[in-house]
Design a protein that fits this description.
The protein is built from 17 helices and 22 strands. The strands form 5 sheets. Strands 1-5-4-2-3-6 form a 6-stranded mixed sheet, sandwiched between helices. The relative contact order is 0.09.
Length: 552
């Protein structure tokens, strides 16, 4: 093992406060396991699409007490460098994952030790509530310990800046530099006069606002709900009840937080099988709507019972169109709606028809919430089940989005219609937009290296056809597009028929492809048009699966 690597390992261990983690690394040194040591030290966690996120393990490539301690020191240095008065305080929240309480305690102690006031969330709560409290109280920053929908082995560190939204470049680089340069940190207990707990009256401001926006006097709508073993359950059920939706059946075995996520290898409403239990519960009670939050409740998935009694799980884009149709109907002259370049193109057409300003951003809500500087962001969404339906939260919010979707289902039901009827109306007007994802997961230890190799290969030799359609244009997002900042990914345009976007995930070891095939507006045979578009989409997906073979 070379001296440079050993020096890096030694410097890390000198700062690591965790006895077990130090013992793990010492054992690897004793075993001369350079491969494993390099896995933990050669690629430190960096701020990706939604902050730091990775497996809980010793070393800078993992989430651990040392990573969290150094990141928090980086936050303190960043606030000082950009001239933000840290005496405004930092809100600190957490979900209920394994390690979240320990990492949360680390953040609180380091901030207090640095003389920064802490406003601690009173218990594990949805990520959107931390974002709300931060904006409502005008604090300097907020930190949320969460890995959202990642597998149980992962955890993460999400950072909100003074504007209330997640940080973007160059702020992420400043925090990372501060973390690298961090020395021994001071520590202070919660008995510090700078420590306070966020009061229930602040959380009630969120609850009351959402009930006022999306509540009804009473509803006969029947739905089934699951928080997928996350922290959304109590908050969501209370808000359903207060909003007039009393016929809510929950999945009892998934209602309480459980960091092992039993039966859910990937606790993400997008994943195949994740909604099985709540769909079964919906069948038991005869519900017409299914709602599911991910473990930190910043995303929401849904399924709707069709006229024939079968269930249709809605894609993120479809939920986006539904919620967007409501937002656009109520939008004012200064309002803006936005989505990302990997999401469907339908929202742009809907906005143009409504005369409302529209913006496309890079992937991730850290970009979406900055889409309307000086104006009101009335609605934003990303296809990965993230929706912002109210500007009081400068991030995606699966709680308020669930209420908004349920309210729309209720309103439609009063006219004998369903969410599926509204989708058909939108497709008839703007054309079928058949979408699909292809997500290829890469397992450690060579996950990132394999993704890089595949991206280099397809960048060097892009396809000339996909699904029988000619690739009319190749856009390398590393060079930027349409005024957007450079990012990792490729767009393959298929003339006027559609497009494919390929990019590595910013939160998981995955290569993700986003397919959209667009049909003709006002097609005389909507059902036939849907079949044709779906067939083209599926053919493209098959070609992509062969093209993007990860060899792992």
């Amino acid at each position: 093992m070379n001296e440079e690597l050993l020096a890096r390992v030694g410097a890390w261990m000198a700062m690591d406060p965790d006895d077990d983690d130090r013992a793990t690394i010492e054992g690897l040194i004793d075993e001369d396991d350079e491969v494993e040591i390099r896995r933990r030290f050669d690629r430190p966690l960096t701020f990706g699409t939604a902050g730091l996120r990775g497996p809980e393990m010793a070393g800078p490539a993992g989430m651990n007490r040392c990573t969290v301690r150094r990141a928090t020191q980086g936050v303190v240095a960043w606030l000082d460098e950009i001239g933000v008065d840290s005496s405004r305080g930092v809100v600190v929240g957490r979900d209920a994952r394994r390690g979240s309480e320990r990492f949360h305690d680390e953040v609180v102690g380091v901030l207090l030790g640095a003389g920064v006031p802490v406003l601690e969330m009173p218990r594990p709560l949805p990520t959107p509530l931390t974002a709300f409290v931060h904006r409502a109280l005008g604090t300097a920053a907020a930190i949320m310990i969460t890995a959202s929908h990642n597998p149980a082995a992962d955890n993460g560190y999400k950072l909100y800046g003074p504007d209330g939204s997640q940080i973007v470049a160059p702020h992420d680089a400043i925090v990372e530099r501060g973390a690298r340069e961090a020395g021994a940190s001071a520590w202070a207990p919660r008995t510090s006069p700078r420590h306070a707990v966020v009061g229930e009256e602040v959380l009630e401001r969120y609850r009351a606002h959402m009930v006022a926006r999306f509540g009804v006097a009473a509803s006969e709508l029947s739905l089934a709900y699951t928080p997928l073993h996350g922290v959304g359950g109590e908050t969501m059920v209370e808000l359903f009840r207060r909003s007039g939706f009393t016929r809510v059946a929950v999945v009892e075995e998934q209602f309480r937080p459980d960091p092992s996520f039993p039966g859910l290898p990937f606790p993400n409403p997008e994943e195949a099988g994740a909604l099985d239990a709540v769909l079964a519960r919906a069948e038991e009670v005869g519900a017409s709507l299914v709602i599911a939050n991910d473990p930190d409740a910043d995303r929401v998935g849904a399924a709707v019972r069709g006229a024939d009694g079968s269930w249709r799980v809605l894609r993120g884009d479809e939920i986006g169109w539904l919620l967007g149709s409501v937002a656009l109907a109520a939008a004012g002259d200064e309002d803006v709606v936005a989505t990302t370049l990997v999401s469907s193109s339908m929202l742009e057409k809907m906005a143009a028809s409504a005369g409302v300003a529209y913006v496309t951003t890079l992937t991730g809500f850290k970009w979406l919430t900055k889409a309307a500087p000086g104006r009101r962001l009335a609605f934003a969404y990303e296809e990965a089940l993230g929706f912002a339906v109210d500007p009081c939260v400068a991030d995606k919010d699966g709680v308020s989005a669930a209420l908004a979707l349920t309210r729309l289902a209720h309103d439609l039901s009063l006219h004998g219609l369903s969410l599926l009827d509204r989708l058909e109306e939108l497709e008839a007007r703007y054309g079928v937009h058949a979408g699909a994802q292809l997500s290829l997961r890469v397992n450690p230890p060579r996950g990132r290296e394999v993704l890089d190799e595949v991206m280099r290969r397809v960048r060097a030799t892009p396809p000339t056809t996909l699904g029988g359609l000619a690739v009319s244009d190749v856009v390398d997002l590393e060079h930027g597009v349409d005024g957007l900042a450079p990012t990792e990914g490729l767009i393959w345009r298929l003339g006027a028929t559609g497009r494919v976007v390929v990019r590595p995930s910013g939160t998981e070891p995955k290569l993700k492809s986003y397919i959209e095939v667009v049909g003709e507006p006002a097609a005389p045979d909507l059902a036939g048009e849907r079949v044709r578009c779906d067939a083209r989409r599926d053919a493209i997906r098959e070609d992509l699966a062969r093209l993007l073979d990860l060899g792992a």
